[in-house]
Amino acid sequence: MSSQKLSRRAALAGSLGVAAAAAVPARGMTADDAAAGLSFACYQVGDQQGLDSLRRGQATAHPPGPGEVRIAVRAAALNHRDLLMLRGRYGARQPEARIPVGDGAGEVVEVGAGVTEVAPGDRVTAPHFIRWLDGDYVPEVFAHDLGVTADGWLAEYITLPASALVHLPEGMAYAEAAALGAAGITAWAVIETLGRVKPGDTVLTLGTGGVAILALQIAKMNGARVAITSSSDDKLAIARDLGADITVNYRQQPQWQQVVRERTGGRGVDIVVETVGLGTLPQSLACCAPNARVGLLGALDQGGGQAPNLSPLYFGNLVLKGITSGSRRMLEDLLRACAMNAVRPHIDRSFSFAEAREALDYLDAANHVGKVVITDFG
Ligand SMILES: NC(=O)c1ccc[n+]([C@@H]2O[C@H](COP(=O)([O-])OP(=O)(O)OC[C@H]3O[C@@H](n4cnc5c(N)ncnc54)[C@H](OP(=O)(O)O)[C@@H]3O)[C@@H](O)[C@H]2O)c1
C-alpha cells in the first residue's frame, strides 16, 4: 500500500467524529481532500457472466453522512449466493461496479452526525439485510441487501447505517463473526425462531456447507441431537467431530431418510434445516416426527421442476415454512449465544483479500466443510 494512501487512511481513520457531531475532515486533511474522498481497493461483480466477472477495482469513500459509519473491513465470509450473484442468477443484474459479499466484520473508523450506537475502534458486524432490524420479514429488505443491491464487504472499507451494526462479543474474532452472518442467521431462523428447539429434540440438516454446519453447531448448543447427510465420509467424520449424532452418506445410501428414521428409533426428527431444496424435500418430510417444523431455505436442487409430494404435512401435522435469512436482532442473539456457549463457527479455510477469486473457486468446488472466509485486507 502506498505511503500516500496509508497517510490518507490514517487521516480518515483519525477523523473520529464525536457522537452527534458532523463528520469533519481529519487533522492534516484539507476540506478538498475530504471532498475528493478516500480511494480504496475493492472487488466488483463486473458483467455477472460467471466467476471470471469478478474484477479488482478502486472505490471512493466520502465522509459518512448522518447516521452512517465507515468501517475498515477485517474479514468477509462467502456464501453460496455470492457464486449465484457473479453468475447473474441472484435476482436482477446489478451495476458492474457493485462490491460483492454480504457477510463481514470490521473496525469502526469514522462516524457521521448523530451516531451514538458505535464509536471509532469498535468491532462490528451487520446482517446482510441491513434494513431488517427486528420483527417479521418484509420483501422490501431486498432493496438494501449487502453484496447484491448495496455494496458489500469485499473491499478495504464499507459504509453502513449505524442502526444495522452489532458489536462483536469480547473474544470473538472478526472472521468468526463474519462466518456467522447469513448462514448462521438462517440456521438460527429455522432452529430457534421456527423450530423452538429444546434439549432432546432431533435436528436434521443436509450437506456440510456453511448453513448446515452452523445448523449443527447451533442445534448442539441447545442440547439437541443432530442428523446430517453428506456426499463424503471424510466430511461426515468432521461433522461427527463437531458433535453430529447420526451421519449418513447420501451417495452410498440414496434412501437416507430410512436410515435417519431407523436411527431415531422410528420416531423421526423434530426440526429440519432443508438446505438443499425441493429436490430433497420429500425425503426430508419422510424423516419427520409428528408436529415437526421444516425450514425450506436451499436452492441447490429444485427437483427438476416437479412438484414435491406434500401429503406428509397433513398426516404428520407438520409445519413447512420458507426462510429468507433473518434480522439484525437474530444476528445479535446468535452472536451472544455463541459467545456465552463458547461456540466457534467452523471455518474450513481462510484466504487473503488478494486471493478472493481463489476463495470463490474453492467454495464453488464444494470440497469445504462449514465456512470459507477472507482476511488480511491490507
Ligand atoms: N434462504 C436463505 O435465507 C438462505 C440463506 C443462506 C443460504 N441459502 C441457500 O442454502 C443453500 C446452502 O447454502 P450454503 O451457503 O450453506 O452453501 P455451501 O456452503 O456452498 O454448501 C453446499 C453444500 O451442500 C451440499 N449439497 C450440494 N448439493 C446437494 C444435494 N443435491 N444434496 C445434498 N447435499 C447437497 C454439499 O455438501 P456435501 O458434499 O457434504 O454433500 C455442498 O458442499 C444454498 O442453496 C443457498 O443459496 C439460503
Secondary-structure map:
Elements: H1 3-14, H2 31-36, E1 38-44, E2 55-61, E3 68-77, H3 80-86, E4 103-111, E5 123-125, E6 157-161, E7 166-167, H4 174-194, E8 202-206, H5 210-221, E9 225-230, H6 233-241, E10 246-249, H7 256-263, E11 269-274, H8 281-286, E12 288-296, H9 312-316, E13 319-322, H10 328-340, E14 347-352, H11 356-365, E15 371-375
Parallel strand pairs: 8-9, 8-11, 9-10, 11-12, 12-13, 14-15
Antiparallel strand pairs: 1-2, 3-4, 3-6, 3-15, 4-5, 5-7
Please name the defining characteristics of this protein.
378 residues, alpha/beta, Quinone Oxidoreductase, Chain A, domain 1, Rossmann fold, 2 domains, 7-stranded mixed β-sheet, 6-stranded parallel β-sheet, 11 helices, 29% helix, 23% strand, binds NADP nicotinamide-adenine-dinucleotide phosphate
How would you explain this protein's 3D organization?
With 378 residues, the chain is an alpha/beta fold. It has 2 domains: 3-167 and 346-375, Medium-chain alcohol dehydrogenases, catalytic domain (Quinone Oxidoreductase, Chain A, domain 1); 184-322, NAD(P)-binding Rossmann-like Domain (Rossmann fold, 3-Layer(aba) Sandwich). Helices cover 29% and strands 23% of the residues. It is built from 11 helices and 15 strands. Strands 3, 4, 5, 6, 7, 14 and 15 form a 7-stranded mixed β-sheet that branches. Strands 10-9-8-11-12-13 form a 6-stranded parallel β-sheet, sandwiched between helices. The protein has a two-stranded antiparallel ribbon with strand order 1-2. Strand 12, helix 9 (312-316) and strand 13 form a beta-alpha-beta unit. The termini are close together. Bound molecules: NADP nicotinamide-adenine-dinucleotide phosphate.
